[in-house]
Amino acid sequence: MGGRGSAFVTTRHSAVLGLSSADAATRQRSWTVIVEAYWKPVYKYLRVRRGKSDADAKDLTQGFLALAMEKDFFTTFDPSRARFRTFLRTCLDRYVANRAQAEARLKRGGGQVLLSLDFSAAEGELARAAPSVGDGLEQYFEMEWARSVLAASVDRLRDDCRELGKDRQFALFERYDLGSLAGDRPTYAALASEFSIKVSDVTNHLAWARRRLREHALHRLREMTASEEEFRAEARALLGLGKL
């Protein structure tokens, strides 16, 4: 996904930094971005690597995010010491360790609901993609973080294609890059025949979709990082971009 000559937009709209803003609207928007990006990795991490039941993982996820917002946990983040996702996981581990199960559980329907969290979808993802037994705590959380960034970027790409009338571009991308197992991808010639277009069109359409996806992923990373150094490190880790 790195491509050649990948340029980095320098404008920064960091949700991490926005959590400390004096403007209430900015803080709320930043909090929404953080929750959208991290609730599913948190939930899956609690289910799979912490061994929590479905109900307990839901309650712990809601409880952790609610307390983090109430106590401004994330405003103490220092980007010179760690990546934000590592800091968040450390806060989560501390929260789980310090709260007894009865204290962590929120009553159904009680307390403040931060977002409508689709736990059933997260459970479905766990059922379809069982984690490797050898994955450690930190490794598993980081993989789910990467999955969440890319999934959100694919959703944005799908919306782009719908709005721009580029449904064919997304269909090709979905067919070739998302829908095929390793070693089972169709050739560009086969795709050209299937979609009744030229092979060169397949090449161009896929290049456009990948470039757009990369742009959305980089935008997401800028929101989820607090410094240029952290952003570039995360871009290298997620997208394999070498020349920064």
Fold blueprint:
Blueprint: H1 15-18, H2 24-48, H3 54-71, H4 84-98, H5 101-104, H6 119-128, H7 137-164, H8 167-178, H9 188-195, H10 199-223, H11 228-239
Helix pairs in contact: 2-3, 2-7, 7-8, 7-10, 8-10, 9-10, 10-11
Spell out the key features of this protein.
11 helices; disordered N terminus; about 240 residues; mainly alpha; about 65% helix; globular
What this model shows, in words?
With 244 residues, the chain is mostly helical. It has one domain. The chain is built from 11 helices and no strands. The protein has helices at residues 15-18, 24-48, 54-71, 84-98, 101-104, 119-128, 137-164, 167-178, 188-195, 199-223, 228-239. The longest helix has 28 residues, at 137-164.
Q: Give the number of domains.
A: 1
Helix content: 55-70%
- Global outline: globular
How many runs of DSSP E, i.e. beta strands? 0
Q: Helix- and strand-based class?
A: mainly alpha
Strand content: under 5%
How much is the average pLDDT?
Answer: 82
Ends apart, CA distance between termini: 14 Å
What sequence of helices (H) and strands (E) makes up the elements? HHHHHHHHHHH
Poorly predicted regions: 1-12, 106-111
Largest sheet: none
Count helical runs.
Answer: 11
Q: In angstroms, what is the radius of gyration? A: 20 Å
